C-alpha cells in the first residue's frame, strides 16, 4: 500500500491554480530581473546611450525620440487633447483671458527655445521642442484667430534687454 501512496496523482483544481499562480510570479520576477539587467547595462554604458546632440544625432533621431516622448507622456498623463485643454482652462483662469490648447503648445515651444538659448546641446530640450511643435501643429486650425494684440514697444524693449544681457554674460 505504501507504494501506491508515492505514485503520482492527478493534480486537483486547487493545485493547478497554485501552479499557475507560481508560474505567473516566476514570469513577473523574470521580467523584473531582465529590466534590472537592462538598467545595469545602461549604467555601465553611460546613462543615456542614445545619439547625442552635436555628436551623432540626426534630425530623424530627434523626431523619433519626440514621437516616443509623446507616446510615453500619453501613457503617463493620459490623452494629450484633454491634458492640453485642461492646461488651457487653468491658464485662462489665471490670465483672465481665453487660452487655447494650441496656445499652451506654443508657450511650451517658447519655454524650450528660451532654455536652448542657455544650453544648445541639451538633448531633452530639443526633443521637447520637436514634440511640442508637432502638438501645436495638431491643434492648429485655419479658422484660428490672429494674435489678439501686437507686440508693444515695452515688450520689444524688454526682449532687447534680455538678449543684450545674455550676450554680455
Please tell me about this protein's structure.
The chain has 169 residues and is mainly alpha-helical. Among the domains are: 18-45; 59-141, no CATH class. 72% of the residues lie in helices and 0% in strands. The protein has seven helices and no strands. It has helices at residues 2-5, 13-44, 59-77, 80-95, 101-118, 123-139, 153-168. Helix 4 (80-95) crosses helix 5. The mean pLDDT is 78.
Task: Give a quick rundown of the structure.
The chain is mainly α.
Fold topology:
Blueprint: H1 2-5, H2 13-44, H3 59-77, H4 80-95, H5 101-118, H6 123-139, H7 153-168
Helix pairs in contact: 3-6, 4-5, 5-6
The rounded Rg comes to: 27 Å
Q: What's the main sheet like?
A: none
Query: From the helix content, strand content and strand pairing, which structural class follows?
Result: mainly alpha
Flag low-confidence runs.
none
Strand content: under 5%
Shape by Cα distribution: elongated
Mean pLDDT: 78
Keywords:
single chain; 169 residues; mainly alpha; 7 helices; elongated
Amino acid at each position: 500500500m505504501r507504494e501506491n501512496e508515492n505514485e503520482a496523482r492527478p493534480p486537483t483544481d486547487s493545485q493547478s491554480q497554485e501552479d499557475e499562480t507560481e508560474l505567473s510570479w516566476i514570469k513577473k520576477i523574470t521580467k523584473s530581473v531582465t529590466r534590472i539587467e537592462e538598467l545595469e547595462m545602461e549604467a555601465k554604458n553611460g546613462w543615456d546611450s542614445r545619439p547625442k546632440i552635436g555628436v551623432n544625432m540626426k534630425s530623424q533621431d530627434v523626431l523619433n525620440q519626440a514621437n516616443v516622448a509623446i507616446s510615453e507622456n500619453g501613457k503617463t498623463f493620459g490623452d494629450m487633447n484633454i491634458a492640453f485643454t485642461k492646461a488651457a482652462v487653468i491658464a485662462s483662469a489665471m490670465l483672465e483671458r481665453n487660452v487655447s490648447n494650441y496656445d499652451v503648445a506654443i508657450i511650451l515651444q517658447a519655454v524650450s527655445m528660451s532654455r536652448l538659448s542657455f544650453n544648445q546641446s541639451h538633448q531633452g530640450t530639443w526633443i521637447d521642442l520637436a514634440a511640442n511643435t508637432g502638438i501645436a501643429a495638431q491643434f492648429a486650425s485655419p479658422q484660428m484667430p490672429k494674435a489678439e494684440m501686437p507686440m508693444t514697444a515695452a515688450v520689444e524693449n524688454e526682449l532687447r534687454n534680455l538678449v543684450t544681457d545674455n550676450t554680455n554674460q
